[in-house]
Design goal:
Elements (H helix, E strand, L loop, with lengths): L3 H4 L10 E6 L3 H12 L1 H8 L3 E7 L14 E3 L3 H4 L6 E4 L4 H13 L3 E4 L2 H17 L4 E2 L10 H8 L5 E7 L2 H13 L3 H10 L8 H4 L2 H15 L4 E2 L12 H9 L2 E12 L2 E12 L11 E8 L3 E8 L3 H17 L9 H10 L11 E7 L2 H5 L6 E2 L4 E3 L2 E8 L1 H9 L6 E6 L8 H8 L1
Parallel strand pairs: 1-2, 1-4, 2-3, 4-5, 5-6, 8-10, 10-17
Antiparallel strand pairs: 7-9, 7-11, 9-10, 11-12, 13-16, 13-17, 14-16, 15-16
Helix pairs in contact: 2-13, 5-6, 6-11, 8-9
């Protein structure tokens, strides 16, 4: 139990006490609470005065928690909405449907909110940001994308002069852990998932992670934050890592690459395209070395060039760190500006319009499947970069061509074939003669 002298309102200090409430006391909420207590002296120096946490909203108020006697624990949201002395509320509930009515009600009353809830921001962010502007308050969500990596703040603060032409990211630590485990140890998807759950990297119901929805939500947020609009999705739903064949991961290595679960945003002419899918990432690409539970975001700016942001994308204290940074920036008036509006995006597109005469470069893909040779015998719409690689009865080949060519080709192949788009310079693909020495 935290004692009152450590956690109370510090009323002996001369400056007015800043007050915040926390909604939700699971992994993120408790991490924020503990960080605010343990780092109190440093944080109060940063904001120039004291703060307190007078109320925490939980699902079950009868559960014993290590909280100060000066912090009220309630399961009634009205206890928060009725208070008139709160500076800000940290929202850390588990999903969008729980969080949405709380955040909406707070913003309507002009109370600023800091959230780590990516599903909430992805589904309702546009509405809630408009509501915040109308009521002269703010909605902050740095922690909703890539946990402890300060990607949103960095983009807005340090890359103001750049147009971000392309963003690619490994945005889900669970999927990255699973693919890394499978590749290194030859385990199945199911075995790797079980270990991720045992370590606490994956939930008991891991669908949002392994089916790509977590990365989908984060990509949507990035698109709004960078460009002010929702992206045009290339597929109806994201593609996850469930059922990725372990032999495909080994085949990818024979050509000098790794299969990674990648979210991408690309500005082209008058639109922003998005995709979430497993990709064949070559060793020359920035995301190649992002392993285990880490996240990585690679941005391509028109001035700065290539940058990689890498670090813990989830977890109790990395996520709490991002929430607390938003909180300190809010209290000190140093927060970054809100995302641009759709109108501002249209102006930006016009000022950075691309030459319609520019021909898109050919793209490359890794194809894996069974009996690829006979299926590809009479195909003339694509070119082959490699010979066929064989690993444990499964085959792989690297091809190049345009999007129309690969679409035509894919419709003619059997249902064992999987296509992985290539990230990196396809001229760096290992010749098969080198690859064969690596697999045996």
């Amino acid at each position: 139990m935290y004692n009152n002298s450590t956690l109370g309102g510090n009323i002996h200090m001369s400056k007015a006490v800043k007050k915040l409430a926390i909604i939700g006391f699971g992994t993120v909420g408790s991490g924020v609470y503990e960080t605010l207590i343990e780092q109190r002296n440093k944080l109060e120096r940063l904001i120039g005065g004291p703060y307190s946490i007078p109320v925490v909203l939980v699902k079950d108020a009868s559960k014993v928690r290590e909280l100060s006697d000066n912090t009220e624990v309630t399961d009634n949201f009205q206890a928060i909405i009725d208070r008139k002395d709160l500076d800000v509320v940290v929202e850390a509930s588990p999903d969008a449907e729980i969080a949405y009515p709380y955040v909406k009600a707070l913003l309507q009353q002009g109370v600023s909110v800091i959230t780590a809830n990516k599903e909430l921001v992805a589904k309702y962010g546009e509405e809630l940001l408009t509501l915040a502007r109308t009521n002269h308050c703010r909605l902050f969500f740095e922690a909703a994308v890539a946990g402890g990596i300060p990607i949103l703040t960095s983009i807005r603060h340090t890359l103001k002069s750049n147009v971000l032409e392309k963003v690619e990211g490994i945005l889900n630590g669970t999927s990255n852990f699973i693919l890394t485990k499978m590749r290194k140890e030859g385990t199945s998807f199911e075995t790797a998932l079980e270990e991720a759950q045992a370590h606490g990297y994956a939930e008991a119901v891991p669908d949002k992670d392994v089916d790509g929805w977590d990365a989908y939500f984060k990509t949507t947020i990035l698109s709004h934050w960078i460009y002010g609009v929702a992206p045009n999705w290339q597929t109806e739903k994201p593609k996850g890592v469930r059922g990725v064949n372990v032999n495909d991961l080994l085949i990818a290595e024979t050509f000098g690459g790794r299969i990674k679960h990648v979210a991408s945003l690309e500005k082209s002419k008058d639109k922003v395209s998005a995709c979430v899918e497993p990709r064949f990432v070559l060793s020359d690409h920035a995301l190649y070395g992002v392993e285990g539970v880490n996240n990585g975001i690679h941005v391509q700016g028109n001035i700065v060039g290539s940058l990689l942001f890498q670090g813990p994308g989830a977890g109790k204290f990395p996520t709490a760190s991002a929430v607390v940074e938003d909180l300190i920036n809010f209290w000190t008036g140093t927060s970054e500006e809100e995302p641009v509006s759709g109108i501002e995006f249209e102006k930006m597109i016009l000022s950075h319009s691309e030459d319609d005469s520019v021909v898109e470069p050919l793209k490359a893909w890794l194809l894996t499947g069974e009996k690829l040779g006979p299926q590809l015998e009479n195909q003339f719409t694509v070119s082959y970069i490699s010979k066929v690689s064989r690993v444990n009865g499964r085959e792989g080949i690297v091809i190049t061509g345009d999007n129309k060519a690969i679409e035509e080709l894919f419709t003619s192949l059997n249902d064992t074939v999987v296509v992985y788009p290539l990230s990196g310079d396809h001229t760096e693909v290992f010749p098969l003669s080198i690859a064969q020495t690596k697999v045996s």
